[in-house]
Specification:
Largest sheet: 5 strands, antiparallel
Radius of gyration: 32 Å
Low-confidence stretches: 18-22, 97-119
Order of helices and strands: HEEEEEEEEEHH
Oligomer: single chain
Structural class: alpha+beta
Distance between the termini: 74 Å
Helix content: 40-55%
């Protein structure tokens, strides 16, 4: 290898680690939920119990997702990161008021906090069950109604009493299926409005 190549190698070996270190920073996250999920700029980086995290210097926001989602706690908290190479954050899911420690060796800045919008549609399975139940019940109602109509045409031809009982049974099944379909659509419409 030439002297120029060796010089280039030594120079890059000395500068590269400092460039890599300068392009990342440490984020310490604390919370009452150590199993909460930590996301940096849309990428999963671990759980709070695995803190501290090395993140890219370009990361401007940290999203904390609660491990347990109930009606009384936060689903997620979106935090804007203050400047600094070593940042400490404290998030309190129970009160929805995250508290921050300042970056190490700097005065405490005013840090804007924005909360991620919670998912509007909770319990989506209810929508799926009600709509699929309505579709199946509607198909059954049409099926039973068609069978009853076909049997009625046969009954008009030969007036057998067995066909009349079948027609009544199929009419009842068609009516029940129609009612179930209307309930499914009603549940979905109610959840859509509220």
């Amino acid at each position: 290898m030439s002297k120029r190549g060796v010089l280039w190698f030594v120079l890059m070996s000395a500068l590269l680690p400092s460039m890599v270190i300068a392009q990342s920073r440490t984020v310490h996250v604390e919370s009452e939920y150590p199993q909460a999920i930590v996301v940096a700029d849309g990428k999963y980086i671990g759980r709070i119990s695995e803190s501290p995290f090395r993140v890219d210097a370009s990361v401007r926001q940290i999203l904390l997702r609660s491990p347990r989602v109930t009606a009384w706690n936060a689903q997620s908290i979106l935090l804007d990161l203050p400047e600094g190479d070593d940042v400490r954050l404290r998030a309190d899911f129970s009160t929805l008021r995250p508290a921050f420690d300042a970056p190490i060796a700097q005065p405490q800045p005013e840090v804007p906090v924005a909360y991620a919008q919670p998912d509007v549609r909770k319990r989506r399975w209810i929508d799926v069950v009600s709509l699929s139940g309505a579709v199946v019940a509607g198909a059954l109602a049409v099926h039973y109604r068609t069978k009853a109509d076909n049997r009625f045409e046969d009954w008009e031809a030969d007036k057998r009493p067995q066909l009349k009982r079948d027609i009544q049974r199929l009419d009842v099944l068609s009516g029940v299926s129609t009612g179930v379909m209307q309930v499914g659509i009603g549940v979905f419409a109610f959840r859509l409005v509220f």
